[in-house]
Amino acid sequence: MQTTRVGFAGMGLMGSRMARHFLTKGFPLSVWNRTPERCQPLVANGARPARTPRELAELSDVVVTCVADPNAVGRIVFADDGIRPAARPGFRYVETSTISPGLARRTAEVLRAQGADMLEAPVTGSKMGAEKGTLLIMTGGSKEVHDELMPVLMAFGAKAIHCGDIGQASVVKLVGNTIISFMLEGLCEGLVVGRKAGVSLETILEVVMASGFASPYFTFKGAAIGRRDWDTHFSIDLLVKDQGLMLEEAGTRRVPMPGLAAIREVFQAARGQGWGEEDIAAVVKVLEKSAGGT
Ligand SMILES: NC(=O)c1ccc[n+]([C@@H]2O[C@H](COP(=O)([O-])OP(=O)(O)OC[C@H]3O[C@@H](n4cnc5c(N)ncnc54)[C@H](OP(=O)(O)O)[C@@H]3O)[C@@H](O)[C@H]2O)c1
Questions:
Q1: Which of 132, 199, 229, 293 is the 20 to 30 Å CA partner of 157?
Q2: pTM above the 0.85 mark?
Q3: Do 97 and 112 fall within a single domain?
Q4: pLDDT 10s digits, 133-145
């Protein structure tokens, strides 16, 4: 049995799967979600439902959050019934959502002003990694808090890499999603041209995977494209959010990102077609459509 009382906010694709590990590993768990019904499967297995994020923080030593975007984090932390009023010395807040480095820093500041502390902890590994508890976690904040929270992090992750101060882990996460954007765009553009030239997707993937271009990412997304399977692992809406966050950070740092800016427009077009909630692999449909079909 674990004694650290954990609160988990956010029962989406990732959060619902991450939170379940706290129950199976014996942590006392409380849960909160904007749409309360989504807490039901965990409550049925022993988690305690909280009515507000504030109550969640009052019931917990550590609150872990995994929600969509900066707006959602703002609501959970800064609202009157949010986490901030319940922050106290010794309280810990672990933010695993992908948000802007600036919001991570502001959140840490207000919590630290009340004697609490925050670890920024964005994750990678997708829905399957969340399910298996094998996510890679990037942390930002003091190394002491990182070390102190390792038992909590290892409940849903396989490895945690300390990236630096608060804000720096968010930057590393956004670099990762920039790379994914380029890889997926490259794969999809290549596949559409290849098919027009009469080469099958299977042949292209076989060559890619036998060569120096290989990446497990191409197997994962290439196979989904082959099956026309748009079941969401990571939605187009959320990747566009991350592309926007990266472009904002690059703007602040006066770094041009012409490639990412162009790719974002392709993903934005997918949202325009009504495919925003589908998996990011569905972006291939935009390229197929603008090429006049497959
Ligand atoms: N999916 C992935 O592969 C993946 C991988 C790594 C990181 N991430 C990041 O992890 C986070 C969650 O991703 P996900 O795929 O789990 O997203 P998701 O399935 O869309 O779930 C989003 C969650 O955020 C909540 N939410 C949205 N707007 C809110 C608001 N204004 N106030 C309070 N709660 C709000 C939703 O509550 P409701 O149930 O009420 O809608 C839901 O619990 C995102 O930051 C994403 O970028 C995702």
A1: 229
A2: yes
A3: yes
A4: 999 999 999 999 9
